[in-house]
TrEMBL record:
Cross-referenced Pfam families: DUF3891
Species, as recorded: Paenibacillus durus
Protein name: DUF3891 domain-containing protein
Amino acid sequence: MICREQDEKFVMIKQHDHGLLAGEFAARFRIEQVPRKRRLDEVLYAIGNHDWGWIDLDEIEAVTPYGALLCSLHFERLIEISGESSPELTLYLQEERRSRIHRELESSGAATFEAELYYDSRLLQFCDDLSLYIGLNEPGTPKSQEHPWWKNGFSSTGEFDFTGGRVITAEWRGTTLLLDPYPFTESFEVTLPVRRVPRSGAVSRGLAAEYSDTPETAITITLAEGELK
């Protein structure tokens, strides 16, 4: 669950809804920049489902072994960012699972290429970050008050060819989110389901009960190109 506080309320977003939004971003990405298109469906599935209740990688692997590789890299990155030590999990994610999947893909004639895997993992990272940005920043939030993770832009995005080495940055204009350089093929709208749970009720009744009784509403956002300083 993604949660932030606003006006005596907890704004709560399901992990899977966040993941689906990331998947929508991936589907609209500047696809001409993708070096190998034959795994596109697998990549989109992995990005859209990477946060499905912190889904077991076995479930993703059953649909797309390549997608499980991407999610494995993503989870390892989250462990590194958190600063928490989990050597057993890291070993499982990086060595045992990845080695086995690489062997299976090679034996089936679908070997992976490091450049392809690296590119797709950067795509997953960006789409995940952009979805989190929207979840953790209320539309219209001034740049000076937004979540600190992205004040200097989205990390590693300067590696996409179309950016010319520039990091993608974002800034709100009301309910429109401007991005520069722009990573999508066109302007478009997205919706994100949220629940605005009253703090008072969460304190008196418990967060789970108050969340259950709070109706779901939708945030509608337009993504567009903009020249940002």
